[in-house]
Amino acid sequence: xxxxxxxxxxxxxxxxxxxxxxxxxxxxxxxxxxxxxxxxxxxxxxxxxxxxxxxxxxxxxxxxxxxxxxxxxxxxxxxxxxxxxxxxxxxxxxxxxxxxxxxxxxxxxxxxxxxxxxxxxxxxxxxxxxxxxxxxxxxxxxxxxxxxxxxxxxxxxxxxxxxxxxxxxxxxxxxxxxxxxxxxxxxxxxxxxxxxxxxxxxxxxxxxxxxxxxxxxxxxxxxxxxxxxxxxxxxxxxxxxxxxxxxxxxxxxxxxxxxxxxxxxxxxxxxxxxxxxxxxxxxxxxxxxxxxxxxxxxxxxxxxxxxxxxxxxxxxxxxxxxxxxxxxxxxxxxxxxxxxxxxxxxxxxxxxxxxxxxxxxxxxxxxxxxxxxxxxx
Length: 377
What we know:
- The longest helix has 40 residues, at 93-132.
- The strands form 2 sheets. A 5-stranded antiparallel beta sheet has the order 4-3-2-1-5.
- 58% of the residues lie in helices and 14% in strands.
- Helix 2 runs antiparallel to helix 3 (54-82) and helix 4 runs antiparallel to helix 5 (138-173).
- By secondary structure, the chain is α+β, with helices and mostly antiparallel strands.
- The radius of gyration is 39 Å and the shape is rod-shaped.
């Protein structure tokens, strides 16, 4: 039996030792392949399926078995040669050594380099997230959300790109022709590019929307003429809820106008109409007094960022003079401050005797009889 497999004498102890080493290495390689495949599947399917699901365990078993058989088939004959035996067939040790120096080492270096770049990218992203997460304010929390979103996108893009490069290098190292693969990938990418132009545009627009911090979750904004509070910002869409509770979903690529009404600070603007009989300077003094009182109020003072600005006479209308004023507030508090200011304004006008204008019409009645009598005289 040994003569059919080997040239010369063969001892079963050497055969057993070589096979034991081959089985051990093949088993370790199969476990590594299973773990890498499991990590890749977890990244793709997420928590859609449980790890114990047959749909997950089946492919993992197949990959593990195929890796074990492939590694064992490649290493068994070189291992036998290594212990001094001379197999009649199979891959020889000299061929394995030559392949290792010509292609194996460059392949290993490529894999290690790709892995190192992925890990370094992950560390840099983590550092970036940590820097933006400093503080406990609402702004810091929003910066942290933006950093996590961008970090996740960057990690995925780098990992997918480098994994594709490593896979192509691996196929080349094993002597497979990757030209058909590259051609097919190019055709598929072209077809997907034509069919998913809108999707790609939405994703790119969403990436820069988050990167440039144009709008954040919780902001009040007007998108394409629709105003409401931003409830979610994704790479593809932005979700807005208006004052009536209606949810509007806008693809990021379709956003033509975006007006953020709560970016850093807000203004509450009042066009105040006063009677033509009132002194604008007197009314301005009253407005500033009310603003100072509100700034001193513990309930409203923290929301007001600057004294009331009275910009002056802005327009002349049929029955009133318009004074324009504004109050600078923290984001999203302009309406609360404005309503309270209007309430105090009405009360102070009543106390000061300042007339609140309303539409008036002067009617002149002519007596035709008197005019006739006056003309006759």
